[in-house]
Design brief:
The protein is an alpha/beta fold. It contains ten helices and 13 strands.
Length: 279
């Protein structure tokens, strides 16, 4: 069975004549008749009643026509989208841990191109989803971090997914909080100062491990921990509960405003595990 044969049956049914269908399809009438007979032989059913007054569909032919139209309609849709001069747009997607600088870079990139000719996508998501999206080609690029604590585990996961990590920048630990926080005016902050306040972390799902955490020092025993699944909620918790999180210190005020700030960590916060390699 071929798409041409489906087209032939559809056109014959619409015109009610082999001759008219042949003219419309720009094929000879004998060729058209031969193609229909070959299709009937392949299917083991009779599609058309032939008479001196033209052709009509048999009961089997009428049922077959319904499926033929559906299949051919899908083929035409594919041709319109992906064929020469079609509406298909090149795609470019980014999956990232929750980084405002990644969104800013995405905005800068999108502004350089005619967005009517591309389908752009960006998704802030869990660590495992970043890896999955790139390995399954849902996204072309994923953005996350490695450090001394998670490097071996993350590199193993990336290798299993046939992915490569390309470093972008190295940075150290900062405490991320809102400007109204009692510690906002400190030049550096240590864990003893943070003890009265809840530590905020992005939820990584039921099957996650410490290695999936977006926040450094994820194995530390915090007295108060609240998990959120999006950046907006995290920022609201910083204001409502004077919460904090540990981050790279790279903040894009152009996008998120100036209500939040990053204060350098000190003491234990500057251990080797706190050296983040974003890539």
């Amino acid at each position: 069975m071929t798409l041409n044969q489906l087209s032939y049956i559809i056109t014959i049914a619409e015109t009610g004549s082999l001759n008219k269908a042949a003219e419309q399809l720009y094929v000879s009438q004998p060729s058209l008749s031969s193609a229909v007979r070959e299709l009937e032989k392949e299917l083991g059913i009779t599609l058309l009643y032939r008479s001196g007054r033209g052709v009509t569909l048999t009961n089997d032919g009428a049922e077959f026509l319904l499926y033929a139209k559906e299949i051919y309609r899908q083929y035409e849709n594919l041709t319109k989208r992906y064929g020469k001069g079609g509406s298909y747009k090149k795609k470019f997607g980014v999956s990232t841990q929750h980084y405002s600088f990644a969104v800013k870079a995405f905005v800068d990139m999108a502004q350089e191109y005619d967005m009517s000719k591309y389908e752009f996508a960006i998704k802030e998501t869990r660590t495992q989803e970043v890896i999955h999206d790139v390995s399954t080609l849902k996204s072309e690029i994923g953005i996350l971090y490695l450090n001394d604590f998670n490097r071996k585990a993350m590199e193993k996961m990336l290798s299993a997914a046939h992915l490569e990590f390309h470093p972008l920048v190295n940075c150290r630990a900062y405490v991320y909080l809102w400007r109204g926080h009692p510690l906002a005016r400190e030049t550096t902050i240590c864990f003893e100062q943070l003890a009265p306040y809840p530590c905020l972390a992005f939820d990584q799902g039921d099957n996650s491990s410490f290695y999936d955490a977006e926040e450094i020092l994820s194995t530390r025993d915090y007295s108060q921990v609240i998990r959120a699944n999006d950046r907006a909620t995290m920022l609201n918790l910083m204001v409502g509960l004077n919460g904090y999180t540990l981050c790279s210190g790279i903040i894009c005020e152009e996008l998120i405003g100036s209500d939040d700030l990053a204060v350098p960590g000190e003491g234990e916060e500057q251990s080797a595990e706190c050296a983040m390699e974003l890539g």
